[in-house]
Design brief:
Elements (H helix, E strand, L loop, with lengths): L5 E3 L29 E5 L5 E8 L15 H63 L8 E7 L6 E7 L1
Antiparallel strand pairs: 1-3, 2-3, 4-5
Amino acid sequence: MHETTYEITTQPRPADYPAYLPAPEGRVMLPSEIPPGVQMVTLPGGIRTLAYTQPTAPAAPLAPVSQPIPAWAKTTALLTPTIGGGIAAAGIGLSYAAPGLIAMSQALWSAVAFIAAAAIGVPLLLRLGRGATGTGTGTTHITQNITASGMFGRANGTINHR
């Protein structure tokens, strides 16, 4: 014979079922009179009675249920090698460009030095060139003296070169 283990629960019985306790005269109910979900049980005091029963719950599964991977985690996992590869490519490119960048910076400083030398040297050369071809001092002074009488009078003047 097959044994099933049931646990006793206190549930309200449906309204359309009568009480299934045996009658005081000791009448025993036939198995066809007992509705589904009701069985003969033995209480802890040794009294046998009919009761609503539920089969014991099956054991919970031991293996954890796998959870789906969130979309942000998939996106991050896919972008990580791309970002790392880009950084690596930039490092390689800078290592190849370093000699050219050093040469360009040296050329830029040379250009700045040339401009500074030209700003100082050109005026100095011009002064030296005028002094060699002129009267010795390198400058010519022109003086004008103009006189007039009245607002519309005739003007007279002299020009002096020194």
